[in-house]
Amino acid sequence: MTRCEWMGGGLCGAAFGQTQPLRLIAHRGGIVDEAHAENSKGSIEVDVRATMDGEPVLQHDAMLELFYSVKQRPEDLSWKEVSALKAQPGGTSPIHFDELCQLAKGRIRLMLDIKNSTMPVGFYEGMARSMTKAGLIEGSYMLGGDKWRGVFGVLGTERGRHA
Hints:
The radius of gyration is 16 Å and the shape is globular. It has a 5-stranded mixed β-sheet with strand order 2-1-3-4-5, with helices on one face. The chain contains 7 helices and 5 strands; from the N terminus they run ααββαααβαβαβ. The N and C termini lie close together (11 Å). It has one domain: Alpha-Beta Barrel (TIM Barrel). It is α/β, with parallel strands linked by helices. α6 runs parallel beside α7 (147-154).
């Protein structure tokens, strides 16, 4: 699958004579302003990091400081600690990858930027199970390291797109 095919034609379609509708991917979560924090339910960015206990959480920046006023990384805290944080603005908590999969189910394709490529294989297997359960494996686009390629390939993402 090419990037143009994954996008459903979109801008590539105009350049190559395809007639499929335009589809855009927004980096850094689309709406990020005084009323919305990135990686919140109102503005989902699909950058995945791991907590100290190996739970996948959506977080672009290495530190939690920008929106949560915490001078630590997600991997320095447990999921219980990370999930108790409240963003400013908005008061929302960080999103667990499983929750993202349920929100996206039947609605959108995922473009994942896996920020830490040194996690054990079980971390990637858990993400693949969540995506499979939500019907999101096929058509997903994944960035960030090589370790996960074998895991997702075993579970069917050879039909997905790997950068």
